Amino acid sequence: MPAGSRRSWGWHALADPFAAALVADADVRPGQLVVDLGAGDGAITRHLVDAGARVLAVEKHPRRAAALRERFDGSGVTVVPADLRDLRLPRRPFRVVANPPFSLTSASLRLLLAPGSALVGAHLVLQRQAARTIVERGVAVRRAGRWRFELGRTLPRRAFTPRPRVDTVVLVVRRR
Question: SUPFAM superfamilies from the entry (predicted)?
C-alpha cells in the first residue's frame, strides 16, 4: 500500500448518513463550540453547521483544509490547518464530534483529556478494539474520576471510504 494512501495513515471518510447520525447522537445544540478533529472533506462539519454549532474544523492536509474553507465560507466554520498533535484547544468549554485518523487515537485522547482541558464531552469514531480497551480498562485520567467512557453506535465498514479492515464504534466521553 502506498505510504500516502488514506488507509496507510488511518483516515477513512465517513459517508453522509452516518455523519448525520453521529451528530444527532451527540445532541449538538445551536451555539455550542464543537471541534471536528480530522475534518477531511467536511462530512461531519456539514451536519454540525446544520445543527447550529460554531465549528473548529481541524485538517492537516493542505488541499482538504483549503477545500473546507471554500465549502464553508460564510457559515461560521473556522478551519484550522494543523496536525492534531500540535493543536491548541479552545480555553472555553467545547465538545468534539469527530472521525480522527485511527493512527492518532492515543494522541487525540491525550490532547482532549489533558489536565486543564475545557472539553465537556466527545463522540469519537474509533477502532472498536481501541474503544473497548478504553472503556474496560480506562485511561490514567479516568482513575482521577474526571471522565466517563461508554461505547456508542457501531458503524459498519460500509460507512467509510475506503472501508477499514477493522470494526468501528463511537466512543462517548463525558466529564463527570
Answer: S-adenosyl-L-methionine-dependent methyltransferases (SSF53335)
